[in-house]
Amino acid sequence: MKTIKNRTKLSSHLAGICLAFLALATAEIGYGQSDHKYTHQDTLRGSITTERAWWDLLHYTLEVEVFPETKSIAGKNTIQFRSKAPGRIMQIDLQEPMQINKVTEGGTELDFSRDGNAYFITCQAEPKPGTWREIEVSFSGTPQEAIHPPWDGGFTWQKDENGVDFIATSCQGIGASLWWPCKDHMYDEPDEGLTLKITVPKHLVAVGNGRLESNVKKGKKRTFTWKVINPINNYGVNVNVGDYVHFGSQYEGEKGKLDTDYWVLSYNLEKAKEQFEDGHRTLEALEHWFGPYPFYEDSYKLVEVPYLGMEHQSSVTYGNQFMQGYLGSDLSGTGWGLKFDFIIVHESGHEWFANSITHKDAADMWIHESFTSYSESLFLEYFFGKEAGQTYVRGTRLAIENKEPMIADYNVNAHTTSDVYYKGSNMLNTLRTWVDDDEKWRNMLRGLNARFFHQTVSSADIETYMADFLDLDLKPFFDQYLRDSRVPALVLNQVEGGISYKWTNCRDDFNMPVILVDENGNRLEIGPTTSLNGGALPAGVAGRLTPDPNYYIFLSTEN
Predict the structure, then answer these.
(1) CA 30 → CA 389, 402, 556, distances in Å?
(2) Could you tell me the pLDDT band of residue 27, with boundaries at 50, 70 and 90?
(3) Which of 41, 103, 108, 121 has the least CB density, counted as fewest CB within 10 Å?
(4) Would you call 246 helix, strand, or coil by DSSP?
């Protein structure tokens, strides 16, 4: 889920208020998580239940036929897995009104029961740990239709300008089980990937993840087989159907030649050939910052869809109307947001943070969105210089609400605050300012992607790695920015030849150092705590001192 619902409305108010975050210092800042209510179904969806824990996913072979005239689908999913511990009852998820019709193992039909959106399947026998198994799950129904994709997930059934069917899926948050039966929890991905077979009326083209293996016509239908050999998260699996044409090229990347493939509606071919040049530019910039593109074996794709866009793995979907910025708007209000196609840069950034490095629990969504929102400014820095990127990330602060902590409740598939986007990117930029070593910062970002390549992680995993790599005690920092809704306020007072300072509006142990700068560019590092401290100004420092603007903090002179 790459975009904030109110961004379009917000962007018209952004210009000329890049320093608005300072005005917010006078606002009352909320503290703590809202009182969310959760259901039994939330727990079944969001926790690693006993019926999930005993088996490990190996491969999905997902076959689905799309019926545009009835807005329905039918198919089967062959699930290969290996037992890790004794167990016989499996949880497979499929949301109403979709339904599982039959489950077989080795040709024998299996019993199953249903508890809301969770099915509990009884395997033939309890396998020994390490045993390879396979079941086949047949399903059908009319999947939920997306009302406002990609934020409200489901199938999108539209017609293009020529009246041809234009269909796509988007299901982050609500879950892939909205339309296909799967182990719908982020902690376990199929180690050996996915085979996706999509059958559509013969005049249409179906595009999925990975590489196209075959295109077989049979009567009035056509089946497109796509293959992914890397692990893939559930919501990253997608189906796109329309009057598509293809063009492509190769990108000379850090790991060699990377196939870049583009699928767009036939009448948009020429516009796409020009606009999708941002694909190579994006790969170049993000490989510099994050390391090699994580899915060379499965190629890189941009696929036009009838909604704004989504980070489907090796099949990034695109609906930004071939415009710069976010539908032609600059979300930062600085002018820099019109120097790139927002959807290409942002959604492609998720190939590193969301698809390769994937959170285990939805509560840690910041891992996906904060790093990827930050990649927008890194793209600008790579091509236009550091100040361009810094100006952009500062300009996005007006979108921050500070109503809830960025980390939500665990084990219930909790929806996180939209602050995981731009509060998250400003948090990262704040930490970079603290580190004050650009090459070390870049090496840390690349190190994250090497250490957690194709893995599911927790916030603790990421926090610990960053603290160890940077050799800093970051627990108070992450507790403040991730687990607290308040923004630290620096109380700063100057008197003749001296200075006093402390942190307020923060946790008791918050002690991030801050660099102050005077009018002549002289720099002074201070180490505030929540107790008043200070002293004489050093020689050479004179005039009004202010914090480096790249810290996401508030500034006050009140004790």
Answers:
(1) 29, 7, 18
(2) very low
(3) 108
(4) strand
